[in-house]
Amino acid sequence: MAARSPKHSLHSSCCRDFFVSYPDRLQWIEEALDQYECRLLRYAQRIVGADRAADVVQETFLRLCRTEHDPVNGSLAPWLYTVCRNLALDCLRKESRMSVALESVVPPVDQNQGHEELVEQRDRVAFVLSQLDSLTDRQQECVRLKFQEGLSYAEIADVTGISASNVGFTLHTAMKKLREKLTQIRTLPVE
Question: What is the model's pLDDT at position 105?
Fold first, then answer.
């Protein structure tokens, strides 16, 4: 078998200890990588785009490493594509939650708007996204955990070490600050 390319990092991944006990499993995983990695990348790119496809495929193979061989054996391709698809759709859902949160600050684009209104709307969205950096670290973390990761207030509280009610206050304050910044840009005089 040819030497592994640097993009395959199974030997240094969390799967290494597992392979010590099951040496034929390493070969099975390597063959799966050789046979399906490029195909899964193309598939994931169609769903999430090129920039996130590699992460989705990497997680797919990490899950394969953690899965028993027997249930997957004989149906490897469908299993890989199902896992890859589900991970890609999860990625899109997380982004969608962030978009919904931003729509509470910036309304969605109306396709019947004129060119100037569309440009103005695009500028407002870009401005709001740029203003995320103006939030405190805690506010940014809470916003990302809520809208990108989809965590509940209680889960965010566990992650951050603050109370669930404080999470709610922090998110409210962050969204209020973003709305105020957007109001400021709307009231600026046009030059």
Answer: 53
